[in-house]
Amino acid sequence: MSTTPRTVISRPLFAGVGLAALLALSACGSSDPLGGGSSSPAGDTGTASGPAEGQTLVIGSQQYYSNEIIAELYAQALEDEGYTVDRQYQIGQREVYLPEVESGAIDVFPEYSGNLLQYYDKDTEAASAEEVNTALTEALPEGLSALEPAEATDQDSYNVTQEFADEHGLSSLADLSTVGSALKVAANSEFEARPYGPQGLSETYGVDVTVVPVEDSGGPLTVKALTDGDVQLADIYSADPSIETNGFVTLEDPENLILPQNITPIVSDKVDPGAAAAIEEVNALLTTEELISLNRTSVEDQAASKDVARTWLEEQGLLEG
Amino acid sequence: MNQLLEAFAWISEPSNWTGPSGILARSGEHLGYTLLTLLIAAAIAVPIGWWVGHTGRGRGLTVALSGAARALPTLGLVTLMGLLLGIGLIAPLTAFVVLAIPSVLAGAYAGFEAIDRGVVNAARAQGFTESQILWRIEAPLGLPLLIGGLRSAALQVVATATLAAYVGAGGLGRYLFLGLKTQDYAMMLGSSLIVVALAILLELAFSAAAWLSVPTGVKVARRGAAA
Predict the structure, then answer these.
(1) Which residues in chain B are closer than 8 Å to A192, comparing Cβ atoms?
(2) Does domain A16-34+55-152+261-315 have CATH number 3.40.190.10?
(3) Can you tell me the ipTM of this complex?
(4) What is the sign of the dihedral through the CA atoms of A209, A214, A220 and A226?
(5) Which of A105, B48, B117, B184 is the least crowded, having the fewest Cβ atoms under 10 Å away?
(6) A-chain residues within 8 Å CB-CB of B181?
(7) B71-81 pLDDT, tens per residue?
(8) Do the chains contact at A186 and B183, CB–CB below 8 Å?
């Protein structure tokens, strides 16, 4: 990915995302996001009967702004094809929404291939994007299938500041072994337990790091820890525009330590070939660069997912109506 | 029930207690943050509360300000402070102090207000200076309510100190976040139970302190009234 430093733009506080996630999670276990009257926030009254004879496709998204944008891309593409869509966005994390997807309450969900695979198969040995996709097809439960993944990935990545990279001549994780001093990495606390965390880094690249837990998923607090020099490394999602904004250098991962996280739509049996084709058409144009620019529009212009998605789909010529 | 059993199993596993990120170390950090917060909050709120209680001035403003401070969401404050001050202990500590001040402040001035004005006036009539009235009459008589304020602040802070882990400062919140993100609910529930145990411990300590803080004369008078 390109890591050219550009003009530094101060990032708005979307730490609220983390906050909201926490609040939602505190209610997890008992809450059924689809229960209780299902008041749909959808503005989809125009197309009453789609090709699937009036059947409504429910689209969900994680409690992650970027995921909601992708869900909205699928939703508008489907509506454009004449399908009726019910939007159920911002549903916690996997433990909360996957049971809903499995039960058939949600029909379309944008997922991340590697993490989804690890949810179903903790000890998976798949490493490359292709291996992950193959393994995922086998690991998915009955009634669910994965559509063609996008080229775009949004995955954990080890980042350093430009100065630190220049000082030590770093471009890959393997180069870290030459730094010599103690290395600290800012990341969510679960990073410690992940296969690509400190243990994996030590086994694969012979580099020892300690984790400084900062719980905003690579958000502004993590970025600040890195720019302040409190840590030398930060785990930031690769599609996060803050990497480019701050001129961070993402260290390459030649040994595939970090599982690829290609954007992969998970769909139920209710999604017919026509709907699948509409979603895959979007996916085919979704590269990591495009995803970063979508995220940037959302974060920096504070634009709603609906508007971000519509503008992009129009630019790509995916909307007919 | 199964979850609860697993949580107890997590707590009773000896290897979970030792080491730099063991339960002992984390509980020590957690209790340390709580006590440090109370100390700072008391250093700020007690003089203000006593001044308000002694002079009777600025009461409306103090009540309004501390009431407003109670409404601040602490996680938001932790994040905001973290963005201003960077990760580490200072940011969450500031947020916890803001959380603790209203209760301590209320305890301090309510303690003074609850004193029979006749007692204060009698002292003044006998030639007590204002500072003697403050230290010999109002402070001791107001102490039980002040300790009550500290007690309720301690309860809030010990529960909220889990947020220190949000910005890398440790404490028992480490287990909560780690358990949440790795689906280790035994760890989450287990560490929550330890927070509860710390809260009970603090409650017991403060209720003992509150009982001890009632001046002997007041106890005697109360006993006399009851008899």
Answers:
(1) 178
(2) yes
(3) 0.78
(4) negative
(5) B117
(6) 188-190
(7) 889 999 999 99
(8) no
